[in-house]
Amino acid sequence: MPESRGLPEIAVIDLGAAGFDRLALMAPEKVARLAAAGRALVTGPVQAAMDWRSRGWLARNVTPYAVEIAAIAGMPGISGVYALNLSTEWACSSMVNGGRLMRVLDWPLNGLGDELTVTRHQSPHGAWWQATWPGFVGVLTGLAPGRFAAAYNQPPIRRTSGVKPVDWVLERIRVHRRRAIPPTHLLRQVFEKAADFDEALALLAGTPLSIPALFSLTGVDGRSMVVERLEERVRLRPGPVAISNHWPEPGQAGDWPRGYPRGVDSPGRFRDACALAAELDGLPGDFAWLRYPILNKYSRLAVMADCVAGSLAVLGLEQAGESALPATRTLRLNGLKAGT
């Protein structure tokens, strides 16, 4: 991984107890650039259709963050906010062991690496930090020093008919019929409400979801877990453990659905992530471990978080040919504590 010196620094914003819409209002130009990148990816008419459908679904949903999304969507000159917030096509590789979490987020939306922001939040159980983007109100990767660290991964598309485009549509229909909370909104609630690893795990494992999800969780006592979720069901895999974007064990006799892996070489990313997870405590505090296929052309974010030491390292990435290169300097926050 080339050096990131000389590149832009990642902004660190203290939001305290404010909603995530505050970040968007502070950086409207970043929200506008991400919205434009979304239009470039899917075209304006498709983005508008996704936004309309997402807005209608959110009006029936139980998420407590709808007001924040509406506030961002109401900003002058901004479009596609509902689609951005309810799109869960994120491919990722995550690994947890002994209080440490390492993850790479992949998504073909150009500009995510450039617009990356780290925010600090205050909860009744202390401060917590996340890597995010202005305009997004869910949580994908977070660190609560002295409590836990956690990340969200997108699961595979459920295999129903055997024809992937048809099954993608069927998955959207299932989501549209449900009112349960989106996975990235649930992860935000975990950081806001859970006092420790046990409470975080109970919420991730037991809360009904609008769509399947994969969560990685590690705590200060050294325990770690991957939580594989269907809408109403759960499978747990204790650490040291890793996950990418397929079901490592497809299940038997119909007890767990088959699925289409997402992202670049999900089995290869899982294989390499599992090897890294076993060595996590001994790995250096830099991103020298980033290599193909965990690092690929869609990689936009890399994070190392340690909830015991209270350290966070974040790197923004952008596509460079068939791989990705740093788009930011590496941000390092050390000695973070729940009360600071």
UniProtKB/TrEMBL annotation:
Molecular function as annotated in GO: hydrolase activity, acting on carbon-nitrogen (but not peptide) bonds
Superkingdom in the source lineage: Bacteria
Full protein name: Uncharacterized protein
Organism of this sequence: Dongia mobilis
